[in-house]
Write a structure and sequence with these properties.
Chain lengths: 868, 420
């Protein structure tokens, strides 16, 4: 059968036909990959074929080049690169030809496929003529081809990293794109494609944005495009401005006045889709300035890579009124719709960011609006005033806000009980939560909540928890922060007299029939958790009473009737919440003096957790696993009795690559169990180590899980001591190669540096555990051959000068552990290392006492090692 | 190319509670990991602190000889590290000397310390032999104050018996400060020095006592004797030293015979050698042995004291720094066959002692003999003075009680605010 019919059949409404066609396509692909891809490309390029078969051909071709999963993607790339050149050349030609097809969808599909091929080939220096051939005669092309070419350039910039495209090509791409955006371009489709392409290409424009003339030109064209009569072009142009705000913040000073005028006009007059982008521009500017100012605050020197231009502060007198206007454009039921996003929400969110960027200065600009509107008969005005108030609570200093908040508190509590509008109550409860979040707690000098008003506040919140689900959810949130503020209150909490009532009310909320609406149930359990976390010994008896209650609820969720998939999802979510709640309680009660009484529930609780593993829900698994980790810590060696039954779930968790959070949590729990069981974990170690080594070798597992796996080696070694001997031959080479990789891997960006440091920390923790585990054993000699490499690793990460404080502490500790365990055998080696001199001295004079402590330990150990 | 989603979180906390639980778990795990490493390192650190606490600049008295060389066979790689585990396998005089310097020794109470009710614990000291009990590697050894072995036995302490499932990890060891009470064959634990390899030297008495109370019972060490547990251990009840605590310790009925009261300053670390932060006090009602007996168990008519002879002929107490009581002339030293370091027994003559500010102005000493070899130490200043007072004008329990009630009254006085 020819490929056209197969592709059409694969879209048939008839299931059997469809299935048969899909199988045939697969068969074709597996028998003759080159021929298969070639015929897809031919199909796509052939204007005589049906549009549907051409589109699917393009899609199948695209999926043969890229996949979401990293390992799959890697396989596809390798597969493409290994195809013979003749086939690839033919496919490329078909793809380029398709760009001139009269059918828009087919052109667009071809654009995306070209970008995918470029993504694979350009980094390999293949298809070097691509950019040239796309741009060669762009000015002479018919409009529809020009549009497709610009779209292709956009996708290409999205797909390819800037460093594999020569600056000369970059310049050509940008020139073509910006010319296409120009008002002189008469065709709107071309102009829109160009504007969207610029959005993708902005990351390539570093050099061009550093050149005043080129930057002026780009900015002028972008600003003009925001005034285009075509709404989609205006929207796309503002998207470019938003991206420029964060990518080229430091280059914007010259344009800010114009941009303000443009954005203000859009916010006030334009279509909502455009207005939202215009607001987003200011939100992005605020994001930048908040980051910069945070960095200022964090450094002693006060210098930062990017200076703050205080654009927000300068725009304040005009920007705040603009944003306040938007607050009055609420939609009736926006609080009931999870996915809602409108101009009022965007404006309020931006106002909150402005407050964080400018601090105290915002207050006088907002207060008149609040005072004028807070008591108006129209709910919109009351809500807008309240929202404005809630928005500015983070940013300004407590001193600046305290008087205002104290005066407003009674009003708010009153509104919460009496205001007829659901919307106003929702925002009022949220605002109360913000007050408690930012202005209540041990760091605040004059407390907002006093003996005089505490009772009233709690009574109103508990009352509000009986209101509509969206309002009740905000009340739970307010209670969360109210409790959090008493986190380090000491032995006597002002919440103690109300503790029982609060717990009862939160449980009642969680049991409301409509608790699954507006996240209410989740909010109720989260508040319950925080109340328990921040409780004191005075109320531990009441927390203890909560244990059988939550256990019974968890038990009830496990009594399986047949449920619809929707019901099951809700059931699983509830199981996760209940396991989370038990985890918080375990951590609260699992130590002296409540431990003994609490642990009487342990058997039953463990039984429930094991049953949760029987349900198929990643979230519930993760929560149950975390709770078990906490339980293991509390139970200590007694946890051994659960191991025979628990072990298989542990193994299952370690094999869960897809839901890598479950895997990560399981790795952490193994650490808990090691410390609880010490050498009693030995019988399970073969299985655990095998699985961990498999995890490390897998390219399917999310990389964030790998550092904790190394740390886990350390936990195991410390627990089983010299019995770790049999794993040495497997684990040491893995540690060694990871160490080599991580010694010099960082630098690319902050995220990479952070990952590299977490990897180093994991590796070092493994070494620490192994050395300490082997100490005083005659088998320490097994470790001697690894000492030179480890010292070299320490030296090289010291020389790289990019380790964080955590790594520093762990690293200097390893130096001590090595000296302590191997003693005189490595005395000479240690003395030769940089680590034992400069690095050690640097740590000894560190301001961080944990680093200093570890360094002193290392110094002692080294002194003893070299004194023999 | 569709427009990009620009929704931001609305009326939401940036971090979900689940993420918070996850973060807190990670924090807890990394904290516990670092604690576990710290414990492992403390195996060595406690040795360092032991060594330094008995190094000459800290405690010259107890260490008259250099540290024994412990490079014993089979531990080549450990030559540089002197661990308690190895010390426990030392034999003979070296071991005795080493262990002898490890106990915290109370001073005798010659005046009542301040803030007794606030800062001190009181407990009734059991009558019996003070000893150090070390459990490691499947065996438990108790050593007397002079370092000699009292018992070598299996116990339910961590690592205290060769029995599966009882001991901790191989390296674990525990050290308890005990008094062995003959009548009920019980080790009464008065302090905890190391537990499962975790050093408590640098911990306050308050913490050590808390740890002792909570940990000892878990092991089964307080159970009646059995095949793997030859002697019962028992925690001595301790009280805050207020009126009722003092009363309980002084008059309360206990399963053991009392020998005076011990007072522990709550904030004091475990300090090897003599310390004024632990005090012993006795009277006739709570001890059979208020006044020292001689070798035949008789109370001599004159007070006997044991002092150490120094190079320059000075005879001194065991305090740090030593207190000079008197000076012997060289001829007498030679004639009596004494040598520097000898412990010498004297009687106090009718001329008595006269001391000002902790120094002896005048001491009427009569030479008796060289002290017997079992003794490791001279008497301390406080012991000499307590015994001296006990024979003349003893410190009475009423004095202690009245001090406590005075303190209470002071506490109740209203605070005065300074206005100028």
């Amino acid at each position: 059968m020819e490929v056209t019919q197969l592709l059409l059949n694969a879209q048939s409404i008839d299931g059997t036909v469809r299935k048969h066609a899909e199988e045939n396509l697969k068969l074709f692909q597996s028998q003759n990959l080159a021929g298969f891809l070639l015929s897809l490309a031919g199909e796509l390029a052939n204007d005589e074929k049906p549009v549907d078969s051409r589109k699917l051909a393009g899609l199948v071709l695209k999926n043969a080049l890229d996949a979401k999963e990293q390992h799959r993607k890697y396989e596809l790339v390798q597969r493409w690169l290994s195809l013979d050149m003749a086939t690839k050349t033919q496919i490329r030609a078909f793809l380029l030809k398709t760009l001139s097809s009269p059918v828009p969808d087919v052109r667009s599909t071809a654009s995306q496929v070209i970008a995918k091929v470029a993504g694979i080939e350009l980094p390999q220096n293949q298809w070097p003529e691509l950019v040239g051939s796309l741009l060669s005669n762009i000015h002479q092309l018919p409009a529809h081809v020009k549009q497709a070419t610009l779209e292709t350039l956009g996708y290409l910039c999205e797909e390819v990293s800037p460093d594999v495209v020569e600056q000369e090509h970059v310049n050509k791409i940008l020139t073509a794109v910006v010319q296409g955006m120009n008002a002189a371009e008469g065709n709107n489709d071309v102009r829109l494609a160009a504007t969207r392409a610029l959005y993708m290409a902005l990351g390539f424009a570093q050099a061009n944005f550093s050149n005043d003339m080129e930057r002026d030109y780009i900015m002028r064209v972008v600003c003009e495009a925001t005034l285009s009569p075509e709404v989609k072009i205006r929207q796309a142009a503002f998207e470019c401005l938003v991206s420029i705000a964060s990518t080229y913040y430091e280059k914007l000073a010259h344009y800010m006045q114009d941009i303000f005028n443009i954005t203000a006009k859009a916010v006030r007059e334009d279509d909502e889709s455009v207005a939202l982008q215009a607001i987003e521009f200011w939100s992005s500017i605020c994001d930048e300035e908040i980051d910069i100012l945070e960095e200022y605050g964090g450094e002693f020197t006060g210098d930062s890579d990017v200076p703050c231009f205080y654009f927000t502060k300068q725009a304040l007198p005009a920007l705040v009124p603009l944003l306040l206007e938007t607050l009055l454009k609420q939609e009736e039921d926006q609080d009931l719709d999870e996915g809602a996003w409108n101009i009022a929400m965007a404006g309020g969110t931006c106002l909150g960011l402005v407050a964080r960027a400018v601090g105290d200065d915002i207050v006088p600009h907002v207060m008149p609006f609040i005072e004028e509107k807070i008591s108006k008969p129209d709910w919109r005005e009351r809500e807008a005033a309240t929202y404005a108030f809630g928005s500015i609570l983070e940013g300004p200093s407590p001193d600046k806000l305290m008087t205002i908040v104290n005066a407003a508190l009674t009003f708010m509590l009153n509104a919460l009980t009496k205001d007829p509008s659901n919307h106003v109550k929702d925002t009022t409860a949220w605002t109360l939560g913000r007050i408690f979040e930012f202005l209540h707690g041990s760091t605040i000098e004059t407390p907002i909540i006093t003996q005089a008003n505490c009772q009233q506040i709690i009574t109103v919140l508990i009352q509000t928890m009986k209101d509509a689900p969206n309002v009740a959810e905000k009340a739970c949130g307010a209670l969360y922060f109210l409790a959090q503020g008493y986190e380090d209150i000491g032995p006597n909490s002002p919440l103690t007299p109300f503790f029982q009532e609060i717990i009862q009310s939160l449980l009642a909320v969680a049991h409301r029939e409509d608790a699954t609406e507006s996240r209410l149930r989740t909010a109720a359990y989260e508040a319950l958790n925080e109340v328990v976390r921040c409780s004191t010994d005075e109320t531990s008896a009441m927390v203890l009473q909560l244990v059988p209650v939550i256990m019974l609820e968890l038990h009830n969720t496990l009594e399986g009737e047949k449920l619809s998939s929707d019901e099951r999802e809700k059931q699983n979510e509830l199981q996760g919440l209940l396991c989370g709640c038990l985890q918080v309680i375990i951590q609260k009660l699992g130590s002296e003096p409540t431990k003994y009484v609490f642990m009487q529930h342990a058997d039953q609780m463990m039984g429930l957790f094991l049953r949760v593993f029987g349900c198929k829900s990643a979230t519930a698994h993760e929560e149950a696993m975390l709770a078990i980790g906490a339980l293991a810590y509390a139970a200590g060696p007694d946890f051994a009795k659960y191991m025979p039954e628990f072990y298989k779930y542990l193994e299952m968790g370690l094999q869960n690559f897809e839901e890598y959070q479950v895997c990560a949590v399981t790795v952490g729990v193994i650490g808990d169990i090691c410390r609880a069981l010490e050498d009693k974990i030995l019988p399970y170690c073969d299985g655990i180590m095998t699985q961990l080594l498999k995890d490390l070798s897998s390219n399917q597992l999310h990389r964030s899980v790998k550092p904790p796996i190394f740390s886990c080696f350390g936990d195991i070694a410390l627990a089983i001591g010299e019995n770790f001997e049999k794993y040495i031959n497997y684990s040491m080479p893995m540690l060694q190669s990871a160490a080599e990789l991580s010694a010099h891997a960082s630098g690319a960006d902050d995220e990479m540096t952070e990952y590299t440091n977490s990897l180093r920390n994991g590796i070092l923790e493994a070494y620490s555990g192994i050395f300490q585990g082997f100490k005083n054993s005659p088998k320490t000699q097994l470790l001697i051959p690894y000492a030179p490499h480890i010292l070299q690793f320490l030296d090289s990460i010291y020389m790289e000068k990019d380790m964080d404080e955590v790594v520093m502490k762990t690293a200097i500790g390893v130096l001590g552990d090595l000296a302590d365990t191997l003693g005189s055998h490595v005395g000479g080696l240690i003395q030769q290392s940089v680590s034992s001199k400069e690095f050690l001295n640097e740590c000894l004079s560190s301001d961080d006492h944990t680093i200093k402590e570890a360094a002193e330990w290392a110094k002692h150990a080294i002194t003893r090692a070299i004194s023999v | 190319m569709a427009p990009h989603d620009l929704r931001r979180p609305f009326k939401r906390r940036p971090i979900s509670d689940q993420q918070k639980r996850r973060d807190l778990s990670l924090l807890r795990q990394s904290q516990h990991r670092s604690d576990a490493q710290q414990r492992a390192r403390n195996l060595a650190s406690s040795v360092i602190s032991l060594q330094s606490s008995s190094s000459p600049d800290v405690d010259p008295e107890t260490l008259s000889e250099p540290m024994p060389d412990v490079d014993t066979a089979g531990h080549e790689s450990e030559a540089s590290s002197f661990s308690i585990r190895q010390a426990s396998s030392l034999r003979g005089p070296e071991a005795r000397k080493w262990f002898a310097s490890q106990l915290m020794l109370p001073e005798w109470m010659i005046d009542v310390p301040e803030n007794l009710s606030r800062d001190w614990y009181v407990l009734a000291r059991p009558a019996g032999k003070r000893c150090f009990v070390v459990s490691t590697d499947g065996v438990t050894v108790s050593r007397l104050r002079n370092g000699s072995v009292l018992h070598h036995f299996p116990s339910a302490l961590p690592g205290g018996a060769r029995k599966k499932g009882v001991s901790g990890p191989a390296q674990s060891y525990s050290i308890l400060d005990c008094i062995f009470h003959e009548a009920d064959q019980t080790y009464y634990v008065i302090d905890m020095v190391c537990w499962r390899g975790y050093s408590l030297y640098e911990c306050t008495a308050e913490f050590r006592f808390f740890w002792l109370q909570s940990k000892l019972d878990e092991t089964g060490a307080c159970d009646p004797p059995s095949f793997y547990h030859k002697f019962r251990f028992s925690v001595v009840p301790f009280y805050n030293c207020d009126q009722s605590g003092l009363h309980s310790a002084y008059t309360g009925s206990l399963p053991y015979v009392k020998d005076g009261l011990l007072f522990y300053n709550k904030h004091a670390h475990y300090h090897t050698g003599n310390t004024p932060l632990v005090l012993i006090w006795k009277d006739e009602r709570c001890s059979q042995y208020v006044i020292d007996t001689d070798n035949n168990g008789q109370v001599p008519s004159q007070q006997h004291i044991v002092l150490e002879l120094q190079d320059d002929g000075k005879i001194v107490t065991s305090d740090d720094p030593p207190v000079v009581v008197n000076c012997l002339n060289a001829d007498f030293v030679k004639q009596s066959g004494l040598s520097p370091g000898s412990l010498v027994r004297f009687a106090i003559g009718d001329g008595g002692l006269n001391c000002v500010d902790g120094k002896f102005e005048k001491a009427d000493l009569q030479y008796i003999s060289v002290s017997n070899r079992a003794r490791a130490f001279a008497d301390s200043y406080s012991k000499i003075m307590f015994q001296y007072m006990a024979r003349r004008s003893p410190l009475k329990v009423e004095d202690l009680a009245s001090m406590i009630s005075q303190e209470n009254q002071q506490d109740k006085l209203p605070e005065v605010e300074m206005s100028d």
